[in-house]
Specification:
The chain is built from 20 helices and eight strands. By secondary structure, it is α/β, with parallel strands linked by helices. Strands 1-2-3-4-5-6-7-8 form an eight-stranded parallel barrel, surrounded by eight helices. Pfam families: Pro_dh.
């Protein structure tokens, strides 16, 4: 069944050397899944598109544990959200999930489910950040061990969240200083990179003694992850976070880029994420791409629509500041299209020094990317790849993978206790993605009805 599905999808893709043809994102992608997997996917996506469940997810989880007990509540979660979106808890479970994906032409992008909780003293101290460092170093090892065939850049990928290694409070302080007119050059990426690489004590005048110590420790942690990733041939895709700390995050990512994205290192080893739903993204992306080119640095970009829309607008209202987001979904789509065009042109001109992940569940964006890649002569398995979430958008992922494009599935892993709060928060941040998965639900429904009625699958020739 799996082989038949793969051949069908390849026939839809057309020959890479011939005329460009749009891929068919239809229900044929689901033929390799069992009926129980289809039913679970349909149910979970329907539930995740229900706003009250997403909004009150953490409270409902606690209520379920009290009412049903941890064992029954955990079993229900494993059979639903956890089973749909998580690779597993042990390394062997993760490997099993990845082997299934690789059999379908897909590749892993591991994500450690870690995030800071500012109100929790246990999850903001230095020991917590050091534990997160250990978890990320283990993720580097696991990522390297998963991939037998080199990816589009010849290496494995994993996600990294900066605020798992440094505090949001420090990022706020740095952002406040960076945004001041004529801010000091003592916060330049070059200066921070020198201190990070040498391990020498760093003193920044806008920070107090404790904050300076935390900055030094944070730089050391970031450096150790990047150093280990480089040694193990794993590229780091830095997660996007909230705009109120974006300047600090951009500074820290630029610091890592100065050290690890130089031509002598064979970069880019550190990629930044750009969110198209922010009004200034196209200009920032253009500026950063040109700055990297002038500095002779490799440039890696993960392009997303964005996940924090409601929170960003709420913060802007509460603080009486300008809303940084695009006014509506259509404007966000236009922004994504413009950023995609900018980066694809940059890739076509700068080749191995510029890489792009088109991280999108939107079929129009994927069609745009594949068409422009063909027009610009960018190879299918070259410096441009695609990304979607595990458990979502399989009809797009499989069509791309079987057509020969490099496709990565973002894969969280870990225990139920670690991952479920992470998944609920990600669902809260990705409401528009989950509510926009109606076409995927329709395709899942079609395939379920086909099986229930005993009809033969229709495969386009």
């Amino acid at each position: 069944m799996m082989l038949r599905t793969c051949r069908a999808l390849r026939s839809q893709a057309g020959s890479p050397s011939g005329d460009w043809q749009p891929l068919n994102f239809d229900a044929s992608a689901f033929h390799h899944k069992t009926t129980s997997e289809l039913a679970r996917a349909f149910l979970v996506l329907r539930l995740c598109a229900w706003p009250p469940l997403v909004t009150h997810g953490l409270a409902l989880q606690a209520w379920s544990q009290r009412l049903l007990g941890s064992r029954v509540s955990g079993a229900l979660l494993r059979a639903s959200m956890y089973g749909q979106f998580v690779a597993g808890e042990t390394a062997e479970e993760v490997r099993g999930c990845v082997r299934q994906l690789q059999g379908l032409g897909l590749r892993p992008l591991l994500a450690v489910p870690i995030e800071e909780e500012p109100d929790s003293a246990a999850k903001t101290g230095e020991s917590w950040y050091e534990d997160n460092l250990s978890a990320m170093l283990r993720c580097v090892e696991l990522s390297r061990g998963l991939t037998e065939t080199p990816g589009p850049t010849g290496n494995s990928f994993m996600q990294m969240r900066v605020t798992a290694l440094t505090s949001i409070r420090l990022c706020k302080e740095l952002t406040s200083w960076i945004r001041r007119p004529g801010s000091s050059s003592e916060l330049s990426p070059e200066r921070l990179a020198e201190a990070m690489d040498s391990g020498r004590s760093l003193q920044v005048s806008c920070l107090n003694a404790e904050q300076n110590r935390h900055l030094q420790a944070s730089l050391s942690r970031l450096h150790r992850v990047a150093q280990h990733a480089r040694a193990r041939h794993v590229r780091l895709l830095v997660d996007a976070e909230y705009t109120f700390i974006n300047p600090a995050l951009s500074l820290l990512v630029a610091t890592l880029a100065v050290r690890w994205n130089s031509p002598r290192e064979g970069g880019p080893w550190v990629w930044n994420t750009y969110q198209a739903y922010l009004q200034d993204t196209h200009e920032r992306l253009r500026h950063d791409a040109e700055a990297a080119h002038r500095a002779g640095l490799a440039f890696g970009v993960k392009l997303v629509r964005g996940a924090y829309l409601e929170k960003e607008r709420m913060v802007a209202r509460l603080q009486g500041t300008k809303d940084p987001t695009q006014p509506d979904y259509e404007a966000t789509g236009r922004s994504y299209s413009q950023c995609l065009e900018l980066m694809l042109n940059h890739v076509s001109h700068h080749g191995p020094m510029c890489h792009l992940m088109v991280a999108s569940h939107n079929e129009e964006s994927v069609h745009q990317a594949t068409r422009r890649m063909w027009e610009l002569g960018i190879p299918l398995d070259g410096p441009v790849c695609f990304g979607q979430l595990l458990g979502m958008c399989d009809h797009v992922s499989l069509a791309l993978g079987q057509a020969g494009y490099a496709v990565y599935k973002s894969i969280p892993y870990g225990s139920l206790e670690e991952v479920i709060p992470y998944l609920i928060r990600r669902a809260q941040e990705n409401r528009s993605v989950l509510q926009g998965a109606r076409r995927e639900q329709m395709l899942l429904s079609q395939e379920l009805w086909r099986r229930l009625l005993g009809r033969s699958p229709r495969v386009s020739s």
